[in-house]
Design a protein that fits this description.
Blueprint: H1 2-12, E1 16-17, E2 24-27, E3 32-36, E4 40-45, E5 49-50, E6 58-62, E7 68-74, H2 81-95, E8 100-101, E9 105-108, E10 114-121, E11 127-136, E12 140-147, H3 154-167, E13 169-170
Antiparallel strand pairs: 1-2, 2-3, 3-4, 4-13, 5-6, 6-7, 7-12, 8-10, 9-10, 10-11, 11-12
């Protein structure tokens, strides 16, 4: 019995799933899919909806019940982290529902890319939105985000965001 279950799991992993026309979704067999686009790959929860990329380079990944992961691309740039952060904040704060941004911190992703990490803190002090801007000198910028719908789900949402960030790779 266990052998047939393991065989079925192995056969199902790597299977391509239906998704947006501009991305390939590959079932990883562990509850996640690899989203493969022309410019990057990343991993997100399997049952979540992955939208096509907009003409501005934005893609949303979300479950039925609220909350959202996001990915947005930008071409290579000579902008400093300060300039990129200020530009990102302009749009985040303009389109958001309030909150106070944290200062960004320069980090290295699991794949070795330089990145800037920051959050938007709500009036209760909760980091309701989290951002990771990942930079590649020749291939551009990949801005990853998570909008956490409530504090109760923070641990699970943080794990999904970490998996997306850790798996993000430029092509």
């Amino acid at each position: 019995m266990l052998t047939s279950i393991l065989t079925m799991v192995v056969m199902m992993s790597g299977q391509e799933l239906k998704g947006p026309a501009d991305a390939k979704l590959i079932d990883l067999g562990d509850g996640y899919v690899r989203v493969e686009t022309a410019t990057y790959t990343l991993e997100v929860p399997k049952e979540w909806k992955v939208t096509p990329e907009t003409r501005w380079g934005q893609r949303k990944i979300s479950p039925a019940g609220g909350g959202e992961l996001g990915a947005m691309t930008a071409p290579p740039s000579q902008q400093s982290w300060d300039q990129l952060y200020d530009t990102a904040l302009y749009f985040i704060l303009r389109d958001g529902d309030g909150g106070k941004p944290t200062k960004y911190e320069i980090v290295k992703t699991k794949r070795g890319y330089e990145a800037a990490s920051f959050s938007i803190i709500d009036k209760e002090g909760f980091a309701k939105e989290r951002y990771m801007m990942v930079k590649h000198p020749e291939k551009g910028l990949l801005a990853l985000s998570v909008a956490i719908p409530n504090k109760d789900g923070e641990k699970q949402w943080a794990a999904h965001f970490k998996r997306m960030v850790d798996s993000a790779e430029f092509k």
